[in-house]
Design goal:
Elements: H1 14-24, H2 32-60, H3 67-78, H4 87-93, H5 104-129
């Protein structure tokens, strides 16, 4: 992974950064200091992500790092989401007590329950005021 020109401990070489930049825009040239800074940042990113993934694998009681171990800290710390891989990771990342987006079925049931509670409350208020379900006052004479 590291080339022969990369200094000790660097995982991403400046040449690799230059090649990547030329893929993005072939006309753009990076200053040597910028290449080194980007290479250092990429190396720090890889080391930090790998360390976090190893911690998660150990926490699970495993000596093997799985995709989810790597994706969770990358998603949570750097907000990098890889389409097709992060659906399960988002569920793992939910903090206890965190709010999830309700399903359509849950929303339908919830609105039905709320409507029933509202109707029961209206009926209860009418009974307290002495009205029957048909709107007449109890105990009073009805004029014709």
């Amino acid at each position: 992974m590291a080339s022969s020109s990369a200094y000790q401990g660097q995982l991403v070489a400046a040449e690799q950064v230059r090649k990547l930049a030329s893929l993005v825009d072939p006309r753009e040239k990076l200053d040597a200091d910028v290449e080194m800074m980007l290479a250092d940042m990429a190396t720090d990113f890889v080391k930090d992500a790998a360390a976090q993934a190893c911690k998660l694998a150990r926490h699970r009681g495993s000596d093997t790092v799985q995709m989810e171990d790597a994706m969770l800290p990358i998603d949570m710390k750097w907000k990098i989401r890889v389409p097709g891989f992060n659906q399960d990771v988002q569920q793992l990342a939910m903090k206890p007590g965190g709010r999830r987006q309700p399903t359509r079925e849950h929303s339908t049931i919830t609105s039905s329950v709320r409507a029933t509670i509202a109707n029961d409350a209206k009926k209860s208020q009418k009974k307290k005021r002495g009205e029957s379900e048909f709107g007449k006052r109890r105990g009073g004479a009805v004029k014709h």
